[in-house]
TrEMBL record:
<dbReference type="GO" id="GO:0052622">
    <property type="term" value="F:ATP/ADP dimethylallyltransferase activity"/>
</dbReference>
<dbReference type="GO" id="GO:0005739">
    <property type="term" value="C:mitochondrion"/>
</dbReference>
<comment type="function">
    <text>Involved in cytokinin biosynthesis. Catalyzes the transfer of an isopentenyl group from dimethylallyl diphosphate (DMAPP) to ATP and ADP.</text>
</comment>
<keyword id="KW-0067">ATP-binding</keyword>
<dbReference type="InterPro" id="IPR039657">
    <property type="entry name" value="Dimethylallyltransferase"/>
</dbReference>
<keyword id="KW-0547">Nucleotide-binding</keyword>
<dbReference type="GO" id="GO:0009824">
    <property type="term" value="F:AMP dimethylallyltransferase activity"/>
</dbReference>
<dbReference type="InterPro" id="IPR027417">
    <property type="entry name" value="P-loop_NTPase"/>
</dbReference>
<comment type="similarity">
    <text>Belongs to the IPP transferase family.</text>
</comment>
<keyword id="KW-0809">Transit peptide</keyword>
<dbReference type="GO" id="GO:0006400">
    <property type="term" value="P:tRNA modification"/>
</dbReference>
<protein>
    <recommendedName>
        <fullName>adenylate dimethylallyltransferase (ADP/ATP-dependent)</fullName>
        <ecNumber>2.5.1.112</ecNumber>
    </recommendedName>
</protein>
<dbReference type="GO" id="GO:0009691">
    <property type="term" value="P:cytokinin biosynthetic process"/>
</dbReference>
<dbReference type="Pfam" id="PF01715">
    <property type="entry name" value="IPPT"/>
</dbReference>
<dbReference type="GO" id="GO:0052381">
    <property type="term" value="F:tRNA dimethylallyltransferase activity"/>
</dbReference>
<dbReference type="GO" id="GO:0005524">
    <property type="term" value="F:ATP binding"/>
</dbReference>
<keyword id="KW-0808">Transferase</keyword>
Length: 410
């Protein structure tokens, strides 16, 4: 793709938020993403390049409909052609469209998957300018390697029990002498490892030999998956150490250690050790700058005359009410602005109370307060000049009298 469509954030302090869940295969990314989506009104964008293809649901370890719990998933099983090469550029294009759509719907995009090179391209490609438009939260699911290797092996055994061999046999093409396992869905774990077994199984009558070949193919799957784990972890470390990505590491080792006797204990460990801290991280991330978002109003979005009017009306109202903060007996000559009571009853029996204060000083105070609240003033001096000019324009209304350098509102 030569160009990318991004919903640009008009306010750099109010970027749209995107959550990324990263980690090696088998660390619990899918489960966490769904748990998180159900709690934060999130929708999931798949970043696993093999899961983007339709089919081989067991081999690619896609979440089932039941496991998704009604959470919308994007880029999951949407490619019909198993031979199509789903490139990094293709992913960035489709991922941006999905993220923009999710945000437009008022939900939180959660990008999850193990293809770290694809995520890196999305974040770092200078043409996309992702960080300029989106605020990112990276969660890294980590498991100690001895425990993860063992888990990977166990998971492949479970996949075989679910029908992995039969699923792979369905896509095997016997008539081809050489099959390209570097593109398309054939990059899935198991496709290449089972190739030799599928080619010779019909020519072997000895069931014992056939079983040995099958076990060897399954062991190759486990070994190659462990190599994939190492590669994925290496990329994550490079993103952290060389590119400076800030990642929140969640250690899920305890959940996958075989020290629990019942599934309820595993689920309890997941909630306490993984889900709870992850939800805390994302909750803080989503709240970040929330107060600023509420109070940060750019004056560029408000017609200037409206701001001037509000300013003048505010102090006119204060004058009418004889605010104790500003009211004092006029000292005559030193008052830059004197506002007399104009027919309204005062709280004092005396009627000669005047509101006296230096207009320029008060304008500066209001501007400083506005800046603290998030208003954008390019030039305090220019704002003061404009506000004074607005006050002078009220001469035409007959409510203001100019006496040399004084402004008298009667």
């Amino acid at each position: 793709m030569s160009s990318y469509n991004v919903i640009a954030s008009q306010n750099p302090n109010n970027k749209k938020k995107v959550v990324f869940i990263m980690g090696a295969t088998g660390t619990g990314k899918t489960k966490l993403s769904i748990d998180m989506a159900t709690r934060f009104s999130g929708e999931i964008v798949n970043s696993d390049k093999i899961q983007a293809y339709k089919g081989l649901d067991i081999a690619t370890n896609k979440a089932t409909e039941a496991e998704r719990r009604g959470v919308p998933h994007y880029l999951l099983g949407f490619l019909e052609d198993p031979e199509e090469d789903f490139t990094v550029q293709d992913f960035c294009h489709h991922a941006l469209m999905a993220i923009n759509r999710i945000i437009a719907n008022g939900h939180i995009p959660i990008v999850v998957g193990g293809s770290n090179a694809y995520i890196e391209a999305l974040i770092e490609d200078p043409r996309i300018k992702f960080r300029a438009n989106f605020d990112c939260c990276f969660i890294w699911m980590d498991v100690s390697l001895p425990v993860l290797y063992k888990r990977v092996g166990k998971r492949i055994d479970e996949m075989v029990d679910k029908g992995l061999v039969e699923e792979l046999r369905g896509m095997f093409v016997l008539e081809k002498e050489a099959v390209d396992y570097t593109t398309g869905i054939r990059r899935a774990i198991g496709a290449q490892e089972m190739d030799l077994y599928f080619r010779v199984e019909d020519r072997i009558e000895d069931e014992g030999v056939k079983k040995l070949l099958l076990n060897a193919a399954i062991q190759d799957m486990k070994d190659n998956t462990c190599k994939l784990v190492n590669s994925q972890l290496g990329k994550i470390q490079r993103l952290r150490n060389q590119l400076g990505w800030k990642m929140h590491r969640i250690d899920t080792t305890c959940v996958f250690e075989e020290r629990y006797d019942h599934k309820l204990e595993v689920e309890d460990a997941w909630k306490k050790k993984v889900l709870k801290p992850s939800l805390g991280i994302v909750s803080d991330f989503l709240k970040k700058n929330k107060e600023q978002e509420i109070t940060q109003f750019s004056t560029a979005k408000i017609p200037q005359f409206l701001f001037y009017f509000c300013f003048l009306y505010l102090f006119w109202s204060l004058a009418c009410e004889y605010s104790p903060n500003f009211l004092q007996r006029s000292n005559g000559r030193n008052s830059s602005l004197a506002v007399k009571g104009h027919g309204m009853k005062t709280r004092s029996s005396k009627s000669n109370f005047k509101l006296s204060w230096n207009l320029e000083d008060e304008i500066y105070k209001v501007i400083e307060t506005g800046m603290a609240l998030g208003f954008d003033f390019d030039s305090k001096e220019m704002w003061m000049i404009e506000i004074l000019a607005a006050a002078k324009r009220k001469l035409k209304m007959g409510r203001v009298k100019m006496v040399k350098d004084k402004v008298l509102m009667a």
